Amino acid sequence: MSTQREPQVVRGLEGIYVATTELSRVDGENGRLYYRGYDIHDLVKYGDFEETVFLLWYGHLPTESEYDAFRKRLINYRFLPENLIKMLPLLPQGTIPITAIRTFLSALAAWDPWAEDNSRDAELENAARLTAGIASLLAKVQRVRTGQEIVEPRLDLDHASNFLYMFTGKEPSTEASAAMNAFLILYADHGFNASTFTARVTASTLSDMYSAIVAALGALKGPLHGGAMEAAMRQFIEIGHPENVDAWFEKALAQKRRIMGIGHRVYKTWDPRARILRERARVLAEKSSEPQWFEIAERLAERALNHPYFQERRLFPNVDYYGALVVYYLGIPPELYTIMFALSRVAGWAAHVIEQHADNRLMRPRALYVGPEHREYVPREKRT
Q1: Which CATH code, of 3.40.50.300, 2.60.40.10, 1.10.580.10, 2.30.29.30, is assigned to 37-224+335-358?
Q2: What is the dihedral angle through the alpha carbons of 339, 340, 344, 346, rounded to the nearest 10 degrees?
Q3: Which CATH class is domain 228-329?
Q4: Catalytic-role residue among 264, 271, 352, 357
Q5: Catalytic: 246?
Q6: Are 272 and 31 contacting, i.e. CB atoms less than 8 angstroms apart?
Q7: What whole-number distance in Å separates Cα of residue 95 and Cα of residue 145?
Q8: Active-site residue 60, yes or no?
Q9: 343, 97 in Cβ contact below 8 A?
């Protein structure tokens, strides 16, 4: 009697482990997230985005001298090739931002002398150019698409503050810089999500860093992955006023609409990133002329958290729920929210590419064939 097991198809690879990683650990039951063993709360409280990126790429927090040298490298890569900048206005009017960034990030490889080099030292340079470059690209693309003069990078600002300066043309407040830093830290890595897995699959073929990152951007573009933050903000805008929340909530339940930003496939309690961004959003709302968006989000979250449907399914606010508010209060329009995700996650994608190449095996899953069995070929003139 045969003991061969029937092949099992696990749709969406849910619960399947395909590799090991030292980069991040997601504790869904207890609502904790760690980067290389460090709790994200500590990284946000005591550090900045540059320090977190160094940790992901090098495996330890930087010394003072390491930090200074690393920050200078990132600053150097804020300045994009002149011929690439000349390409920015050439895309057709109406090109969506993430498509523009995907195009120009791919083009950036042509100016990178290490683009085809998969050695660790070269990949660390590629990662630095990509992480700094995507921030400059997004700021410049937005200025071009809105008919504003391009703002050049500054040498004296940290990564988060410099992006906001280039994007808005104004030096950000202390609160805005802190919120931007927190946002970038919290979105930097999160296990084998769809875009990260895409980057690792691409890297497993021994393709280059740029190809892996552009592939990841393609996966992020899908509304089931990178679109949640924009959908959450548009949901708040649809509600319009805190007094409308209750009626909107009841109608949404009756129509079986999903409350965007509530629930997570892994977390069965509060997403720890949401708790941190909630406080950042609160601070920004208090200094804003539009505090109603935070009030709407709070009231809607309260209704969901106290409703049996959400309680039974253990559905809580996730990172996109309050992340949407943070970037809105920073002056970033909803159509850019998906690429804002990539502004941070590029550092995590790069870390995964480096990790994949350090201990590589080609990812080659199999598909279970369920189509028809052998069929006889009939010449075209005899087919009916």
Answers
A1: 1.10.580.10
A2: 10
A3: mainly alpha
A4: 264
A5: no
A6: yes
A7: 9
A8: no
A9: no
Tell me the sheet residues that pair with 25: 34
Distance between CA 278 and CA 284 in Å, rounded?
A: 10
pLDDT grade for 16, boundaries at 50, 70 and 90: confident
Which one, of 146, 129, 141, lies nearest residue 79 by Cα?
129
Strands 32-35 vs 24-27: parallel, antiparallel or unpaired: antiparallel
Set 112, 189, 208, 320: catalytic member? 320
For residue range 94-110, what is the model confidence (pLDDT) as tens digits?
A: 899 999 999 999 999 99
Question: Which of 113-121's residues contact partners 24+ apart within 8 Å by CB, and which partners?
Answer: 115/208, 115/209, 115/210, 116/208, 117/208, 118/206, 118/208, 118/209, 118/357, 120/354, 120/357, 120/358
Taking residues 276-304, report their average pLDDT: 97
Q: Give the whole-angstrom CA distance, residue 105 versus residue 101.
A: 6
**∠ Cα 235 238 239 (to 5°):** 90
C-alpha span between 36 and 59 (Å, rounded): 7
Closest by alpha carbon to 288, among 323, 327, 319? 327
Domain residue extents for the chain: 37-224+335-358, 228-329
Do 37-224+335-358 and 228-329 show the same overall fold?
Answer: no
